[in-house]
TrEMBL record:
The keyword Transmembrane applies. The chain crosses the membrane at residues 66-89, 95-117, 124-145. This is DUF1700 domain-containing protein. It comes from Ectobacillus antri. Keywords: Membrane, Transmembrane, Transmembrane helix.
Amino acid sequence: MSREDLRKEMEARFKGLPPEEYQKMLSLYEELYETAQRNGKTENEIMSALGLETKPIKPEVSGIRFTLSVLGLLFFNIVVVLGPALTIFAVYLSLWAVSFSLIISAVAAIGAILFLGESNALQLVFLAMALGGSGTLLGTALIPLGKLLYKVTIWYAALNIKIARGE
C-alpha cells in the first residue's frame, strides 16, 4: 500500500470525524508511516502494524443524534408505516379466517348429510368438496405469504436499527 493508498484509507476510516481531528489523525498516521519506512519496514509490515487490515473505524453516534434519529424514525413509522402495516396484517388475518370458515362449512355440509338426512346429498357432497378444497388451497397459499411478511418485518426493523445507529 502506497502513501496515496494510505491517504484514501484514512479518508474512508475517519470521514465522520470533525476536520481538526481528521487532520490530526492523518498527520499521525503519515508520521508513523515515514518513521517505519526509515526503519526499513516494508509497506505490508507498516500497514499491518497500523492495523489497516481490520474493519474501518466508525465514529461513535452521539446521544443527542441517536435520540433525534430514534424520535424521527418513531414519528415516521407511526405516521407513514403503521397504517398500511396494520391494514396488511388485518387482511392477512381475515384471509385466514375465510380459509377456516370454508373448511368448517365443508364439514357442516357433510354433517348435514350424515345427521339430517338431506335429500340433496349429491349436491351437498360436491358443495363440501368445493368449500373444503377452496379453504385448503387458500390456507396453503397463506403460509408462504406469512413467511414473506415476517421476513419483510424483520428486514424493516433491522433497517430502522441501522438508521438509528447512523450506519
